């Protein structure tokens, strides 16, 4: 399988290998569509010759501006198969950011999702004169008079080549692409300044795919995965590319909102996700348990303790004593089986990445028989770089590096990495490249961490996010936030306190959990804001945050907090598309509120 020198060859080889098996399926407007590997290759062939008919040539940059859908994957394979370069654009990007990315990348053509995304492009049309044509996945019939637009279906019939001729053309192109040719530009969703275009070659992406293949050897052809992550992000892209390599049957889900239903209906074997998914699932499970009878609550908490004890023994390689084994079976029958059922009931393991996940959540899901394996990587490493595996994992760590890759800790604690999946640099930005990749080839990740005696890596925080208090204490805000998010009804936390005497925080709440608490207390919950302000709820929340604070060092504790009326979301620009908080935006938007928390008379005490 390592004979391929480019992604186009990999695509064609796997398509030939798996033939009439199902490659992907997607439900849209209540109707399922699916394609075999052979059918999927035929679609991609038509797109390749369609691009050629438009005038696209090897080396051209072609954008994709869309949510996750099967057409995104097909367009990506077609661009790569032509020998062109895919530039990925988040559908949540503002018009100004879209204009910058397409202009900086010098994109000639753009695949766009629908009328909404087309309107975004139309609003910046004079800023992107390099874009010659927009290929619209849907809604093109509403724009029939605009020669700038071509419908996706019509685009597939643009070439006069027969199916056999299209396949021969695609095979010929695949034979000419060099391993060090540029495959894609992925613009970082940076929190300050303009995004930087990370250059990823066919060779770096193949190294990433090879790393996944080695680390996830328990994956089998035909295993079902659910792809809901944004394909514009390197993690979603990694799932799409590596899934093709491993012969997966991919259920494509258009958004996070439909994920729970997709899991129940499709019973996947694998789930690639971000921590926010498990944080919300954990909060919902905890809220449901809290709403149960006293006996049900006791059973739930007993089962959780038993489960964590059992998986801790297993992780250490120790056999379970007979008594613990019996208790664990009972706990599974009473509690954990229901947790697995909510995730489809068949998950072998799940990869979680993009941000740290609180250890208590990891332990709970592993106790429930849903093996969560944390990994770590970044756009500049083509996706993953370290990973826990089914056979070797440590709770709280991000695993160990891929084979053939190096990782070390600098004197100031920063994680440095080197290896074949690392980017050669940023597009047209030699200064940023020199600032990130040193003369010896080490990529400076900006993450602070450490390595244990067995080679497992632990992330402590972002180097630039570290808070230094007025007393000189260095604090990793993510660790504090993860601790506080374990408090009942808490959704998100953003702490603050650089150069200040102590930490304060803004807290957002999970309305579902709050309503469950209110119903349990026989409090009318029609007005959720009124519940937030109810003294009984405030006392309940205070107590939960106090317990969370007790898990932290004294200098890490949050002294005062304020509840925000809305959650952090992608739509309000306070979460990244992979659901990590945008710390700088939050600090800027709520600067005055943060500062008011240093006047204790106006703040809620957290203990």
Question: What's this, in brief?
Answer:
By secondary structure, this protein is of the alpha/beta class.
Topology readout:
Layout: H1 7-18, E1 22-28, E2 31-36, H2 37-54, E3 61-65, H3 70-82, E4 85-89, H4 95-105, E5 107-112, H5 115-123, E6 133-136, E7 149-151, H6 152-155, H7 163-174, E8 182-187, E9 197-201, H8 202-215, E10 224-227, H9 234-246, E11 249-252, H10 259-266, E12 270-273, H11 275-290, H12 294-315, H13 322-342, E13 349-352, H14 359-367, E14 372-378, E15 383-387, E16 400-401, E17 406-409, E18 414-418, E19 425-426, H15 430-436, E20 443-451, E21 457-462, E22 467-468, E23 474-475, H16 477-484, E24 490-496, E25 503-509, H17 511-520, H18 528-533, H19 535-549, E26 558-563, H20 583-589, H21 591-596, E27 604-605
Parallel strand pairs: 1-11, 3-4, 3-5, 4-8, 5-6, 6-7, 10-11, 10-12, 12-13, 13-14, 25-26
Antiparallel strand pairs: 1-2, 8-9, 9-19, 14-15, 15-16, 17-18, 18-20, 20-21, 22-23, 24-25, 26-27
Helix pairs in contact: 1-2, 1-3, 1-7, 2-3, 2-7, 8-9, 11-17, 12-13, 12-14
Folded structure, characterized:
The structure is a single chain. The chain is α/β, with parallel strands linked by helices and 607 residues long. The chain has 3 domains: 7-177, 3-Layer(aba) Sandwich (Rossmann fold), CATH 3.40.50; 273-463, Rossmann fold; 466-605, GMP Synthetase, Chain A, domain 3 (2-Layer Sandwich).
Low-pLDDT stretches are none
- The number of distinct helices, counting runs of at least 4 residues, comes to 21
What is the name of the CATH class of the largest domain?
A: Alpha Beta
Q: Quick one: how many beta strands?
A: 27
Shape field: globular
Q: What level of helicity do the residues show?
A: 25-40%
**Oligomeric state:** single chain
Query: Which fold does the CATH topology of the largest domain refer to?
Result: Rossmann fold
Please identify the structural class as seen in this structure: alpha/beta
CATH homologous superfamily name of the largest domain? ANL, N-terminal domain
Number of domains: 3
What share of the residues does DSSP label as strand, in percent? Answer: 15-25%
What's the alpha carbon Rg, rounded to whole Å?
A: 25 Å
Largest sheet: 9 strands, mixed
**Major sheet: arrangement of strands:** 2-1-11-10-12-13-14-15-16
Task: State the end-to-end distance.
Answer: 58 Å
- The averaged pLDDT comes out at 91
Gross CATH architecture of the largest domain:
3-Layer(aba) Sandwich
């Amino acid at each position: 399988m390592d004979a391929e020198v480019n992604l186009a060859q990999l695509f064609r080889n796997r398509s030939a290998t798996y033939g009439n098996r199902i490659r992907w399926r997607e439900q849209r407007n209540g109707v399922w569509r699916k394609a075999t590997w052979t059918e999927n290759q035929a679609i991609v062939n038509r797109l390749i010759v369609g691009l050629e008919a438009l005038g696209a040539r090897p080396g051209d940059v072609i954008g994709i501006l869309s949510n996750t859908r099967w057409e995104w994957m097909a367009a990506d394979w077609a661009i790569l198969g032509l020998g062109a370069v895919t530039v990925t654009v988040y559908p949540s990007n503002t018009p100004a950011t879209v204009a910058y990315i397409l202009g900086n990348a010098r994109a000639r053509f753009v695949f766009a999702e629908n009328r909404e995304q087309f309107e975004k492009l139309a609003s910046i049309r004079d800023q992107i004169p390099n874009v010659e044509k927009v290929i619209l996945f849907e809604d093109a019939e509403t724009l029939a008079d605009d020669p700038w637009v071509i419908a996706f279906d019509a685009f597939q019939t643009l070439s006069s080549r027969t199916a056999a001729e299209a396949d021969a053309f695609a095979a010929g192109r695949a034979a000419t692409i060099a391993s060090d040719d540029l495959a894609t530009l992925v613009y970082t969703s940076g929190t300050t300044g303009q995004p930087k275009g990370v250059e990823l070659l066919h060779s770096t992406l193949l190294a990433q795919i090879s790393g996944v293949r080695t680390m996830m050897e328990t994956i089998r052809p035909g295993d079902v995965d659910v792809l809901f992550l944004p394909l514009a992000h390197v993690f979603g892209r990694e799932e799409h590319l590596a899934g093709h390599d491993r012969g997966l049957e991919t259920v494509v889900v258009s958004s996070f909102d439909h994920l729970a239903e997709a899991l129940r209906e499709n019973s996947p074997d694998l789930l690639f996700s971000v921590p926010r998914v498990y944080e919300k699932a954990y909060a919902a499970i905890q809220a449901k348990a809290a709403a149960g009878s006293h006996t049900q609550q006791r059973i739930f908490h007993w089962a959780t303790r038993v489960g964590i004890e059992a998986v801790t023994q297993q992780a250490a390689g120790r056999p379970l004593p007979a008594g613990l084994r019996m208790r664990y079976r009972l706990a599974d029958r009473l509690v954990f089986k229901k947790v697995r059922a909510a995730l489809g009931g068949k998950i072998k393991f799940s990869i979680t990445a993009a941000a740290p996940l609180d250890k208590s959540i990891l332990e709970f899901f592993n106790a429930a028989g849903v093996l969560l394996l944390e990994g770590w990587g970044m756009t500049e490493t083509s996706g993953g770089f370290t990973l826990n595996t089914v056979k070797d994992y440590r709770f709280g760590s991000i695993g160990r590096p891929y084979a053939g890759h190096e990782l070390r800790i600098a004197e100031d604690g920063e994680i440095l990495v080197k290896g074949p999946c690392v980017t050669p640099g940023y597009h047209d930005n030699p200064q940023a490249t020199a600032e990130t990749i040193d003369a010896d080839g080490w990529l400076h990740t900006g993450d602070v961490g450490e390595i244990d005696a067995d080679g497992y890596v632990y992330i402590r925080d972002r180097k630039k996010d570290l808070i230094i208090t007025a007393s000189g204490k260095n604090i990793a805000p993510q660790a504090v936030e993860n601790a506080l998010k374990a408090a009942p009804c808490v959704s998100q936390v953003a702490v603050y306190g650089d150069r200040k005497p102590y930490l304060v925080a803004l807290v957002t709440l999970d309305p579902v959990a709050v309503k469950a608490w209110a119903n349990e207390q026989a409090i009318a919950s029609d007005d959720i804001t009124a519940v937030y302000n109810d003294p009984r709820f405030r006392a309940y929340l205070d107590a939960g945050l106090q317990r969370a604070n007790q898990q932290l060092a004294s200098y890490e504790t949050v002294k005062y907090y304020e509840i925000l009326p809305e959650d952090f979301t992608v739509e309000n620009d306070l979460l990244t598309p992979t659901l990590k908080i945008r710390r700088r935006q939050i600090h800027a938007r709520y600067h005055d509120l943060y500062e008011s928390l240093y006047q204790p008379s106006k703040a809620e005490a957290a203990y």
